[in-house]
Amino acid sequence: MYNYKIKNLVIINIILLCFSTLIYAQDVILSLNGSDLNYESSSDIAGLQFDHDNCASGASGGDAAANGFMISASEGTVIGFSLTGSVIPAGSGTLLENVNCSENQLDNFVFSAPGGTGLTVGFGDGGEPPCDDVDGDGVCDDVDDCVGEYDECGICN
Questions:
Q1: What is the DSSP letter of 90?
Q2: Of 2, 1, 24, 4, whose CA–CA distance to 12 is shortest?
């Protein structure tokens, strides 16, 4: 009977892991609010790049500029990075201002974390915002029954 309960617990955790991985697949969620490009990020952002259809060549300001990023906005691409190693801290806010585009005019998002690790990016209302997952089990901490590990008896931590 005891082994049956552990087996069921393992199966439930695998299902939750698969489901939560699909829901929380993005590290960064972007959205437009007027001419502001807003973000929610579960990781520090060390660099960003995206393409646009000639609508964001005036992109500037926002949390990118406030955190010392150099912003280059050409007729088709926006790039932001820091020469001093500064990052945009995990959280949410206005990433850039003067992005006079609609959602379908922006694509090819490339964001990086410190150390050059790639970040996954979602746009608009197509995904849930990222969440904290301290134990890396694919389940957001606010809904995780065990933030840590289960021992051989099925007890958390």
A1: S
A2: 4
